[in-house]
Amino acid sequence: MFADKYIGKNHLSELIQEPPHPDLGISVVIPCLNEPDLLQTLQSLWICKLPSISVEVILIINHSEAAPANIKAQNLNTRMEVESWIAENNKPGLRFFPVGPVELKKKWAGAGLARKRGMDEAVCRFNQVKNPGGVIVSLDADTLVDENYLIDIDRHFREHPSHVGATLAFQHQTAKLSEKHLRGILLYEQYMTYYKNALSYTGYPYPMFTVGSAFAVRADAYVRRGGMNRRQAGEDFYFLQNLVLLGPVGEIRSTTVHPSARLSTRVPFGTGPVLKKWMNGEEDLTKTYNFQAFADLKQLFDVKDLFYKILEKDYQELISSLPASVGEFLKQDVFWQDIAVLNENCSQLSTFQNRFFQKFNAFKILKYLNFTHGTHYEKACIFEQINGLEANSKMNN
Fold it and tell me: Per the confidence metrics, is the pTM higher than 0.90?
């Protein structure tokens, strides 16, 4: 079957003993660590309109082997609460499977490994029913969903058979937030939108939101991608940026997920830590990457075809003609080595064009932005940068 090799290579054993329904089509995976309000998320899913296929929700209740006793106790309590809730909320076509508490090795314990355990289990279950096109949906235990969440995910993948995955629209929960907390999450959402749109402006072909609770992937694409990584934070970013190399990743805007805007230190970076720093006065969310850094990058991407079969002497002349922020970064990054490898392995310009952004990918763009904001630019007012992006986008259309 489609995932036999992946299952064997990763030594996967089934976590759920009950066999999947033969028409299993969607598996929603939820990592759960010390989540006292998980039932709100489950209720949100329970009231969803259901597609014609069967849906499963896999809950990976987990903690580190080094977790304190109170967290382990909360996880045990969560398991009992979930089992009690399931007993009272049977619904044809929608099944909930709590797994754990699963104890994770201290070195790797975190969102990435927990999400991977759940997604790997989803692969095993789709493999049992021979459904490589089954959709694995990533959700979080503090996130609510719209009523049309499941049917619109199903509709998207039916209408776009070439899509290997999709991101979903999101809007953070804002009820009961203090004035400063509310302003912080709204600013952070504006930053995320600005960053995505600015990437699109540069000509980067894969701009997308990377939110752990708001994406989906086909089971066979997940396997071909090599599965989820074990990163303790940013696992969604790394996974999705590599997934685009397999095929189109769509954007589902007809339904919305609603992550929590809670403050958190359980991961080293992301929404929770950023908001905590904002609340403590350690992070200024009114400032963001200078738009000019993106405008400079656009000049590089506009002439990328000129790097095809270029000699090193001509390469040095070309990057010297680019804005200093870009030229100096390319020298510091020794990007010539990447260009030389591309030209050695690309016999046609079209192949070079496709592979260029495998080298100058989202990771390198972030590296460039951090470099240039230490050498050429300073972070500036987010509203002014958004206005600058919008004005220049209009000029280029």
Answer: yes
